[in-house]
Structure formats: structure tokens, C-alpha cells
Amino acid sequence: MDSKFRSEAYGTDALGLAVDYVFNNLKLLLAGLTVFPSNTRAIKAYTKVGFKNVEVLEKSWTMPSGEQMDMILMELKKDDWIAAQL
What we know:
Strand order of the largest sheet: 1-3-2
Strand content: 25-35%
Helix content: 25-40%
Shape: globular
Oligomer: single chain
């Protein structure tokens, strides 16, 4: 991504639209994702939209180099999303 577009909240806005679609069009009750702990920008965006940390999945990802990495499991419940929109 071109650096001039960073920190403009475009990613957060797009994520909000995706979550809205998941809950209102697909009728899901829970959205979940995993993210590397080092991806602090993504974690900030996910948290801003309403996702919460559920747990750390220790050594759940193996890199091509063979290094094992932790992942953070995050979730957002539809009820929490609706409450945050009010």
C-alpha cells in the first residue's frame, strides 16, 4: 500500500463494511479471525471495529523457514456489534 494512504482509517472503514455485511447479509452471529501479535496496526483496527482477544494460539503457525509463530484469536459477536452501532 502506498504510504500516503496509511493512517487514514481506510482499512478500518473497509473492515466495518465487511463486518456489517457478515452480520446483516450473511446472517452470521459471530465473526472470528487470527492475526500475528506483531501486526499491531491490524490489531488496532480490529479492536476499533469491536473485535476482542479470545486467546493466544501458541506456535500455531509454521513459517516457510520452519519457525513457529503464535497467533491471536479475535472474535466479534453480532450483539456486541449492534450495541456499538447505537
